[in-house]
Amino acid sequence: MTTESAHDPRPLLARALDQAGKQVAAVGPDELGNRTPCADYDVRALLGHVVSVLRKLARVGAGGDARDVPDVIDDIADDGWVSAFTRARGEVERVWADDGLLDRTVELPWAALPGRDVLEAYTHEFTAHSWDLAHATRRLAELDPDLGAQALDAFSKFVRPEERGEQGPFGPVVPVPDDADVYTRLAAYLGRRP
Predict the structure, then answer these.
(1) Where does the Mycothiol-dependent maleylpyruvate isomerase metal-binding domain lie (predicted)?
(2) CATH number among 1.20.120.450, 3.40.50.740, 3.80.10.10, 1.10.10.10, domain 7-189
């Protein structure tokens, strides 16, 4: 077994989900209509997307098709987001507790990857969406800079600026000062306007 194959991405995913869960729990009813940096998403829709991503991650881990889950879950009551997130996270943790799944090829709509790579990709997505929620609700000081640095490093390798445009989840890179904090640089790299 190589060092690379011995790497377990689940602890880092748990940290990213802890951070996302804190952001979800902090959202007040008066903030659900706030705009987010994600095009076409207010806070309510972004919460629905975060829950959807958890459900997709559980689905693909169990051998299902992520396309069976809508991109935004919209049937959750305004006071039900924390329990929906917690239930979906629990299902992800249950499915992905199987060590064998880390090296198994998992089919995603955009690629077929080893399970450990899938978890790393989604770790960085949850980190980015934590920033989106924190930005929309003005709670930026509560974010883990190490998670932000790892997400920025990963996105820099796999989401090349020349491969994106105005359409899709990542817009053109937005210029920011060189001394900007890591989450500002991450958001700008993903095409958000911090």
Answers:
(1) 14-134
(2) 1.20.120.450
